[in-house]
Amino acid sequence: GEVCNMINKKYNEFLPSMQSAEDLVSQVDGLSSNIDLLKAGIENEVQRDLNVAVAEFTELKQQLERDTLVLSILKKLQEFDTAIKEYNTALLEKKYVAAAQQLEKARSSLKMLESRRGFELKILKALGTELTVQTQNLLYHLGEEWQKLAVWKLPPSKESSSLESAMHSELHLRTVPSKEEEIAGPPVASVLQAFAVLGELHTKLKIFGQLLLKYVLKPLISYPSLQPFTEEQSDVFILRFKSEEPSLDHSSPMEVFDKIKLILEVLHKYLLNVPLEQPAEDKKDGRVTLAELLGDMIWEELSDYLIQNCLVNSIPTNSSKLEQYIEVIKSTEEFEKALKNMQFLKEDTTDLLKYARNVNSHFANKKCQDVIVAARNLMTSEIHNTVKITPDSCVALPKLPDPGARDHSKMQKTSQLLCNDMVNLENETKLSQYTFSLPTCRISSSVERLMELAYQTLLEATASTDQCCIQLFYSVRNIFQLFCDVVPTYHKENLQKLPQLAAIHHNNCMYIAHHLLTLGHQFRYRLTNILCDGAATFVDLVPGFRRLGMECFLAQMRVQKGEILERLSSARNFSNMDDEENFCAANKAIRQVLHQLKRLGKVWQDVLPVNVYCKAMGTLLNTALTEIVTRIAALEDISAEDADRLYSLCRTMVEEGPQVFTPLPEDDRNKKYQEEVPVYVQKWMTFKELMIILQANLQEIVDQWADGKGPLAAEFSAAEVKSLIRALFQNTDRRAAALAKIK
């Protein structure tokens, strides 16, 4: 029973708490279903209303945008229309600037219309066409007006750059008295301003500028005789040209500048002094004068042309005139100033002025160029016009300038002439008179002039500014380097074919080499100060010139030797001379060789220095004698008649050979050299010994040999002498005995 009570008691306490938990659950359930209802309500009713409102709002917004667009488009169309109407009115009244401005307004309206995406109107194409037509129409009217303002009367010929055509060119500028301006039509300014508004001014001005350059400015620079003259009538200003005899080949820069200033002043007064409003993006301040625009277009070309065709010619060619050049620089400055005042020019010191101020450098360049051109002309002139030079020949020179206080202590009195045989060395030691002397010979007159050119240029250098001095010194060096390149190539064929020219060229090279030894020396005081290491010398060029002369002459010697051997090759080896035909052939060969040598002796006469002449002729005669000796010594059988005939051929050579030595034109003075032939002809004695053998008996030959100590032994080897004995004598005991003694 106790247990039951306890259970009931617990149960009774339990029930109420369970009750309250159940109540709570049912309350939560109720709330939850309320929320569901509310949520369903929101989803169904409110959301729908909101969606509708947003949709309506968007639709209204799009509607508004469409209306605004349409409105702005209609507005632009209306602006376009108004602009075209006002343009037409302005055009009728010849108010060109207003007309042009209206067209530009129409153009910007049209641009706006075309930029609308997704709004392509058929009408836009028509409007575009209308605008183009009206623009062309206005340009046509403006063109007509422009043509009245500036009228070109040009020669019909295509040939634009002649003096003739320049004289037939005229430019008429319309002038309008200010009070009648309205009646006479629009002023210059409005026509030009309208062009500017339409962006066509540049094209118009460019054409005008080109005509101005071609028919007026350039001819005035090119033709000194061309003079501008002007004529003013009531409503027109005329610019014409006439030709007057010029005083010089080139007009001075001063004259040219004056003529051009005159032209530009006229243009400035009647046509170009017009301030223009530029379209905004071009200019900061928007205002610019026509002169400025034209100047921009033509100045560069004009200034180049002035430099090339006027200033270049005005650069002096000798340093004494450099002082006076200051006038040219001044007038160039004034010319620029005048052009600035008229607003043709904006910037300071243009290329034109820089060129004029840089006269020293141009002077040096021009001088160097003139020197090289003159030198090249001398090098390509004929070699065979010659002058005779002797040991006391001098290079004619103007008085050397006194170098002032530059180096008084060392200055020597400079002589009027620089002589071949007179060189004072540093410490005044006198060398033998002939140490530096040149033998008498002939050189090309062009080479003598070339040397004078070199001396004069160095003289000029000593009187010039440092920079110019250096340039001139190197251009003189260039002359000589050029000589080595030009002469051998340019005269190549003649130097190969003509022995006389080869000889003259040889002398020319030796003459130049001779002068190069001392050339820097005369000018050393001035040049050494400027050129580093005192390198004012030409000595390094000497070996090259000697080699050049030698090579050419030796090549000619080889040709002559070849011809001698060629002629002797037809002598049938000098064998079987008892045969008439063979003898004739040999005799003819000998005659031809002598004839060749005689001819050479004549063409080299009075040309080559005597010692060179004798060596050269000696060498060639030696070639002939050596060949004859070799042929005869090689014969295996020589009959008595053969020997006689060979002897007579040799006698011809010995008698007539020396006569080819005629170094001097006066015959009596040549005897001395003919007697000295054995000195110049190495094999002369050999040849004489051979002749003795051809006439001697066995005993005489043995005597001439004299145990290897006689004159025969000096010229021939034992083997050669034995071979000759076997050929000349029959095989006998006496021959065997003689042969035994030759050893």
What's the number of domains? 4
- Given the structure, what is the number of helices? 28
Structural class: mainly alpha
Helix content: 55-70%
Spatial extent as radius of gyration:
55 Å
Summarize the main sheet. Answer: 4 strands, antiparallel
The residue ranges in which pLDDT falls below 50 over 5 or more consecutive positions are: 177-185, 280-284, 398-435
Overall geometry: elongated
Proportion in β-strands: 5-15%
Could you give the topology of this structure?
Elements: H1 2-92, H2 96-115, H3 122-149, E1 150-153, H4 163-167, E2 170-174, H5 181-184, H6 188-197, H7 201-222, E3 226-232, E4 236-243, H8 253-272, E5 275-277, E6 287-289, H9 290-314, H10 326-341, H11 351-357, H12 359-379, E7 386-389, E8 394-396, E9 417-419, E10 441-444, H13 445-462, H14 466-490, H15 492-497, H16 499-522, H17 524-530, H18 542-568, H19 580-603, H20 610-633, H21 640-656, H22 671-675, H23 677-680, H24 684-695, H25 698-705, H26 711-715, H27 718-728, H28 733-741
Antiparallel strand pairs: 1-2, 2-4, 3-4, 5-6, 7-10, 8-9
Helix pairs in contact: 1-2, 2-3, 2-6, 3-6, 7-8, 7-9, 8-9, 8-10, 9-11, 10-11, 12-13, 12-14, 13-14, 13-16, 16-18, 18-19, 18-20, 19-20, 19-21, 20-24, 21-24, 25-28
